[in-house]
Design goal:
The chain is an all-alpha fold and 219 residues long. The chain has helices at 33-38, 45-49, 59-62, 76-79, 93-114, 124-148, 156-176, 186-218. The model is unreliable at 1-6, 8-22 and 29-62 (pLDDT under 50). Residues 1-29 are annotated as: Disordered.
C-alpha cells in the first residue's frame, strides 16, 4: 500500500529588494507579484541586478571592482548597488559566491529531476539531501564568520533560510515521486530562483547591519 504524498506548499512570499535600513522582519515574507509575472530564469549575478534599480555611482557601471571578483562570479554591480547594500560587502564575498554556486546546483537538480521523468532506480533524494546539507553548512559558515568578526549575528534570517530549505526539499520530493501527476513548470522554477536569492540577500543585509551596530557601540 503506497502512501500519498501531500502536494507541495505554495511558495514563500518575499518582498521586493528593500532599502538597506528597512526590510521585513525575520519570518515575514511578502512576494513581489511583478517578478512572478516576469517568468524569466535567473542564471547569474548579472541577471540579479537587472531586477534592481540602476546603480547610484556611474563609475561602477563602466568599471569592475577587483575586490568584487570571486572565483566564478563577478559581483561589482550587485555589491555596489546602494539600494541594496550601504557599502560593498567585500568581506563576505566567499560566502555570497558559495550561495550562488549552491543556487546553480539547485537549479540543475530541479531541471534534471523535477521537470522531467525520473528513471527508476535513481537515488535522486540522496543528491537533494547532500545539497540540503551543503546549504546548512553555509549557514554555519555565516555564523562563524560573524563570530570571527567579533559580533553575534541575529539568527532570524538564517532561520528563514532553514525553513525555506525544508519546504523546497519537501516540494522536490513531491515532484520526483511516482505519485506526482505534474512536473515543475518553468514559471515555478523562476520563482524558486528568485526566492532563493531574496532569502539570502536578507541574510547579507542583516549581517552588515549587525556588524555596523557592534562597530558603532565600540567607538
Amino acid at each position: 500500500m503506497s502512501l500519498e504524498l501531500p502536494k507541495p506548499q505554495t511558495s514563500f512570499d518575499f518582498s521586493a529588494t528593500p532599502p538597506s535600513n528597512s526590510f521585513p522582519p525575520a519570518g515575514h515574507f511578502s512576494f513581489d507579484t511583478q517578478r512572478k509575472k516576469e517568468g524569466s530564469l535567473i542564471s547569474g549575478p548579472a541577471q540579479v541586478v537587472s531586477t534592481s534599480v540602476k546603480l547610484e555611482s556611474p563609475f561602477f557601471t563602466r568599471n569592475l571592482c577587483t575586490l568584487c571578483k570571486g572565483k566564478k562570479y563577478g559581483f561589482s554591480a550587485y555589491f555596489h548597488n546602494l539600494k541594496i547594500f550601504p557599502e560593498p560587502p567585500h568581506a563576505i564575498l566567499p560566502l555570497v559566491e558559495e550561495s550562488y554556486m549552491l543556487r546553480d546546483r539547485l537549479k540543475s537538480l530541479l531541471v534534471t529531476y523535477a521537470m522531467r521523468e525520473v528513471e527508476q532506480g535513481q537515488d535522486v533524494m540522496a543528491q537533494v539531501h547532500y545539497w540540503e546539507f551543503s546549504v546548512g553548512a553555509l549557514t554555519d559558515d555565516v555564523m562563524n564568520s560573524a563570530s570571527n568578526s567579533g559580533f553575534v549575528l541575529n539568527l532570524g534570517r538564517l532561520d528563514d533560510v532553514r525553513k525555506w530549505l525544508t519546504t523546497i526539499v519537501d516540494e522536490f520530493r513531491y515532484y520526483v515521486s511516482c505519485q506526482a501527476h505534474m512536473k515543475l513548470s518553468r514559471m515555478r522554477l523562476a520563482e524558486l530562483m528568485i526566492e532563493y536569492r531574496k532569502i539570502w540577500e536578507f541574510v547579507w543585509i542583516s549581517y552588515l547591519q549587525d556588524r555596523k551596530a557592534i562597530q558603532a557601540e565600540t567607538m
